[in-house]
Automatic annotation (TrEMBL):
It comes from the Bacteria. Residues 301-387 form the Glycosyl transferase family 28 C-terminal domain. The lineage of its organism: Bacteria, Pseudomonadati, Pseudomonadota, Alphaproteobacteria, Hyphomicrobiales. This is Glycosyltransferase. Keywords: Glycosyltransferase, Transferase. Pfam families: Glyco_tran_28_C (PF04101). SUPFAM superfamilies: UDP-Glycosyltransferase/glycogen phosphorylase.
Length: 446
């Protein structure tokens, strides 16, 4: 069995997926080691038997990064976010080779958001698996970039539009790509131009199932496994501690952990729902103060709730279009009113509109009028929306989830770990010594 590095950024939804995967890999006899920015270990739900903490990220710094991520808007915000990600990748490439060698890491399972993992895996000759917790970054030319809300268009006009989007996206990602090129050269890997070039050549896992995605070519390398979640008890919504009336529509609204502070948007949602004979629950995930919560005109305002159980009972979900929430809605056949705000949410909202399983309004364009119009349509035709969700729900149920993801990783490790591989530890050591900073001592919890 192998000692596996699980490389994950400091985002709650991504950490939940990696924790679930780590638990399953442990049950299969492997030894998962979480690789996190220092401070992010406090975000884990369960104590880990082993964690590698990459230095220079105290708790306050990690919290500040999450706080800034929640407010990313405009060109300047995107450039700042890319700059921070580039610095994270540079730090990872400097420190990970020595730490992984010290810890005896034999395989890497990495979030697609950290391209440095692919570079380090190639440098050290380690088995490598990519996991897309968000929309996959691997794309077909007819598929817009994940952070764009453009519809799917395989015509020449659509392809031309997407090429323009790629050009602008490349300008935004210039700092990150410069880091990737520099470290691929230092590691003796030639030149890798972008994050897609750093994905695993052997196994790429995705939570997004084909029925919810835009069309991909038949030779796409992605293996869809559906939601990667921890095992849960049966959730029917029947025993919730809320007196939900069965004869009135029930609307659940959540903007996730990163966007849960958006009080003005919650106010708009609550004011619009108040015009309808519906029951409204708002879950702000700890983003609002008590005073703000008390000012919202909703039947229930909570911080956290068993979302999967609530959605089993909900007639409609108002969501920021985060992938985890959307997958929960699809798994419970709950129509959505998506209000994408940032990251890959616009691309997810475009897919909701493409498959006609909900309505999408860009978060910055939400007004009482267009929100009420969409709400009227969804409540009046929710059976039609649920019927279109049904085949996607069936696909999610058969995709395999956490167990299949872990089994595929286990199979890859069985075929690769322990075989004679040319390892480039010397190249990694030389590259780290050539940098301005030395790898700090491993910070681990065992």
């Amino acid at each position: 069995m192998a000692r596996i590095a699980l490389v994950c950024p400091a985002y709650y939804s991504h950490l939940r997926a990696f924790e679930a995967l780590g638990q399953r890999l442990s049950a299969l006899g492997h030894m998962p080691v979480y690789v996190l920015p220092e401070g992010a270990e406090t975000m884990l739900e369960h104590a880990s038997p082993a964690t590698i903490l990459l230095p220079h990220e105290p708790v306050s710094r990690v919290r500040a990064l999450i706080g800034r991520a929640s407010g990313i808007t405009g060109v300047s915000g995107i450039l700042k976010a890319v700059g921070e990600q580039a610095a994270n990748t540079d730090r990872f490439c400097r420190l990970a080779p020595g730490l992984f060698r010290q810890e005896g890491i034999e395989a890497i399972v990495a979030d697609e958001l950290e391209p440095g993992a692919g570079l380090v895996a190639s440098c050290l000759g380690l088995a490598h698996v990519s996991l897309a917790c968000a929309l996959p970054i691997e794309r077909d030319p007819a598929m817009p970039l994940p952070f764009l809300d453009w519809p799917y268009d395989a015509s020449e006009a659509g392809l031309s539009r997407n090429r323009g989007g790629e050009l602008v996206g490349g300008l935004f990602m210039a700092r990150q790509r410069a880091v990737i090129r520099r470290w691929s050269q230092r590691f003796g890997l030639g030149i890798r131009a972008d994050d897609v070039a750093c994905l695993s050549p052997a196994l790429r896992l995705s939570q997004t199932v084909p029925g919810f995605d835009f069309p991909r070519p038949s030779d796409a390398r992605l293996t869809p496994v559906g939601p990667v979640r921890a095992p849960a008890t049966a959730r029917t919504g029947a025993d919730l501690p809320f007196a939900i009336a069965p004869d009135r529509p029930f609307v659940f609204a959540s903007l996730g952990t990163v966007q849960g502070h958006r009080f003005d948007l919650f106010q708009t949602i609550a004011a619009a729902c108040a015009r309808f004979d519906v029951q409204l629950m708002i879950a702000h995930c700890g983003g609002l103060s008590r005073a703000q919560s008390e000012r919202l005109d909703a039947d229930w305002v909570v911080d956290f709730v068993d979302q999967q159980a609530i959605l089993q009972r909900a007639d409609l979900c108002v969501t920021h279009a985060g992938l985890n929430t959307v997958l929960d809605c699809l798994a419970s056949s709950t129509p959505m009113l998506a209000l994408p705000i940032s990251f890959d949410q616009p691309g997810i909202g475009a897919r909701i509109a493409h498959h006609r399983i909900g309505r999408t309004i860009a978060g910055r364009r939400v007004r009482p009028g267009n929100f009420s119009e969409a709400l009227t349509d969804l409540l009046a035709h929710r059976a039609d929306y649920a019927r279109r969700i049904a085949p996607i729900r069936a696909e999610i149920e058969s995709a395999g989830g956490t167990e299949r993801a872990a089994d595929l990783i286990d199979d890859l490790i069985a075929r690769t770990v322990g075989r004679p591989i040319e390892r480039r530890f010397d190249a990694a050591k030389t590259a780290a010594n050539d940098s301005d900073h030395r790898p700090r001592e491993l910070s681990a919890m065992s």
